[in-house]
Design a protein that fits this description.
Helix content: 40-55%
Radius of gyration: 20 Å
Low-confidence stretches: 261-270
Order of helices and strands: EHEHEHEHEEEHEHEHHHEEEHEH
Shape: globular
Strand order of the largest sheet: 1-2-3-4-7-8-9-13
Number of helices: 11
Distance between the termini: 22 Å
């Protein structure tokens, strides 16, 4: 199975995301295009575009970037509470058709500033029920005509999406990525996602979750192709291990100095099951497996910034190959400053990951 290597474009209005020191041009189309073109030039398949209320609309940004690139695949994060499924299915199919099949979709069910855009569904279990229904309906709208559907959350009558996604005639649709570590989230993923994304947990935690999700796909009688797995993590890569750890510790020291400013955000993220799993890792040690650094999570790191893989290109490549040996085939990597690290990590790391694994 071919592996997918994606980067991350922060997609925020204000500069300074995860310590990125870029100020000139941040948040402009020219800057985001520069990042997207750099992913093409340095071996990446595309990039995840972050979502959240108060940030640029991901579909608008993705459409603009697709028009300015040739191979770049936008992994567009979207929320079912923000979109109606028929509206989303049409927008996604249109972008996918116009871009020649380059659209990837990341479904996000976690709470955002939901009241700001009128999403009144705050109960976690019901949110995941809604997400499952959303995905079921979207798949039908991409593949069937004259769809009539009456669910607990959504309803359409005689609905046909035009144009179809690129390659729909051969059964292709945009790939659906999904995250979440709660029991409710895992059942949605097992039933309806194409790719389950994990945060940067140690190998034993990822192995446990892959085994459980594979069992769940049988339990929920999954009707789709086998579920695939992905890893979203920060990768701090330098020429030597000593240089990498020196820079990692300096970054964490800077985070510790400004921790108070991000305390509300961190507290909110910790309520999520997957985020809490990451923060709990620090109790097992500062460095887990070979080079998984847990300390950033103590000082405001959230999501993919909670744990980092730190080391030389050879060391980080070996760590990522260990995840691949468990069945992970999609990798969404990043470090800051985003612009310079696209080139550094892409040039140093990706050729190693695309080589045959060393024997012995």
């Amino acid at each position: 199975m071919a592996h997918e290597f994606l980067w991350y474009i922060p997609n925020t209005v204000e500069p300074g995301h995860r310590g990125d020191d870029t100020t000139t041009g941040w948040g402009t189309l020219d800057f985001s295009t520069e990042l997207a073109l750099a992913t093409e030039a340095h071996g990446w398949g595309g990039a995840l575009l972050g979502t959240g209320w108060g940030r640029p609309d991901t579909f608008t940004v993705a459409t603009a970037l697709a028009a300015r690139t040739t191979t770049f695949k936008p992994l567009v994060a979207i929320r079912p509470g923000y979109w109606q499924p028929a509206h989303f299915a049409s927008a996604a199919a249109t972008l996918d058709r116009l871009s020649g099949g380059r659209l990837l979709v990341n479904i996000v069910s976690g709470l955002d500033n939901a009241a700001a855009y009128g999403d009144g569904q705050t109960d976690q279990a019901r949110r995941y029920d809604r997400t499952r229904e959303f995905l079921q309906l979207v798949r039908r709208l991409w593949t069937e005509e004259d769809v009539t559907f009456q669910g607990d959350f959504f309803r359409v009558e005689g609905s046909t999406v035009r144009p179809r996604p690129y390659g729909a005639e051969q059964g292709r649709t945009p790939r659906l990525y999904f995250g979440g570590a709660s029991a409710a989230a895992e059942r949605v993923s097992a039933a309806e996602a194409d790719v389950q994304l994990f945060w940067g947990e140690p190998l034993d935690g990822v192995a446990e979750r892959i085994a459980r999700l594979r069992e769940l796909t049988n339990e929920v009688e999954r009707p789709h192709a086998p579920l695939e797995f992905g890893l979203r993590i920060t990768t701090l890569v330098r020429e030597t291990s000593e240089e990498a750890w020196r820079d990692a510790e300096a970054k964490v020291a800077a985070m510790a100095e400004k921790q108070g400013a991000d305390s509300t955000f961190t507290a909110q993220r910790r309520r999520a099951v997957g985020q809490q799993r990451l923060h709990d890792l620090a109790g097992r040690g500062e460095v887990l497996d070979t080079c998984l650094y847990t300390t950033p999570g103590r000082f405001g790191g959230g999501g993919a910034g909670t744990t980092w893989l730190v080391g030389s290109a050879d060391e980080v490549a070996a760590a990522l190959r260990a995840y691949a040996d468990l069945g992970v085939t999609h990798f969404v990597l990043s470090d800051t400053p985003y612009r310079s690290e696209i080139a550094r990590v892409g040039d140093a790391l990706l050729p190693l990951l695309r080589e045959p694994a060393p024997v012995g």
